[in-house]
Design a protein that fits this description.
The chain is of the alpha/beta class and 194 residues long. 36% of the residues lie in helices and 26% in strands. It has six helices and seven strands; from the N terminus they run H-H-E-H-E-H-E-E-H-E-H-E-E. It has a seven-stranded mixed sheet, with helices on both faces. Strand 4, helix 5 and strand 5 form a beta-alpha-beta unit. It is globular.
Length: 194
């Protein structure tokens, strides 16, 4: 009886901590960039060739709609990570067959070398601690895996150089940059992997 009581107390403490955390743990919301989410979705649906049952992590997936669109094209194993409790609750009700986690500023809650793709549905400059996050991406990405994210095009900023310095610290490199309808889409891979 005493052990069950300790378990319940521990679960309750975790729940309280979870409910009282700050909203901007992983990224800062930028409403102006929400306009580009459908463009990024259209790009991924049109040009990303997924294989059956690949593990796809979607960060900032809002209500899960576009990872579901990818799943309808190719049966994938979807994982959704978001810092918004409301968005996750909505996604869980609409798409109960995906795996859901709440974002935290610590380690990402996944084992090493798990994901074929990490899709970031949030402009990369909104992330609070990019260096720590990139280390975590490296840890959970498969050897031949890819990270794909976007930026709104800005002709006055040399993003490639900035990103090369951040990703280079953990032996990741930019494989491709695509300009698509007002956004730059970056594909990142492990260095030296063809």
């Amino acid at each position: 009886m005493e052990q069950n009581e300790k378990k319940l107390i521990s679960k309750w403490e975790k729940k309280i901590k979870f409910l009282n955390r700050t909203d901007e743990v992983l990224y800062r919301a930028k409403n102006s960039d929400l306009l580009f989410i459908p463009i990024f979705e259209k790009f991924l649906v049109s040009y990303l060739m997924l294989k059956y049952h690949q593990k796809i992590l979607c960060i900032g997936c809002h209500t899960g709609k576009w990872i579901n669109t990818l799943d309808q094209q190719t049966n994938i194993k979807g994982y959704i990570l978001d810092q918004s409790i409301r968005n996750l609750q909505v996604a869980m009700h609409i798409y109960p067959h995906y795996n859901y986690e709440i974002a935290s500023s610590e380690l990402l809650p996944y084992r090493n070398n798990k994901f074929h793709y990490i899709l970031i549905n949030q402009p990369f400059d909104t992330f609070v601690d990019k260096e720590s996050l990139v280390k975590e991406f490296k840890r959970i990405l498969k050897k031949k895996g890819k990270i794909i994210f976007y930026y709104k095009i800005n002709l006055f900023v040399n993003r490639k150089k900035q990103l090369e310095s951040i990703f280079g610290l953990v032996d990741l490199e930019i494989e491709n940059i695509t300009h698509y309808r007002g956004i730059e889409i970056y594909e990142i891979k492990n260095k030296g992997v063809a």
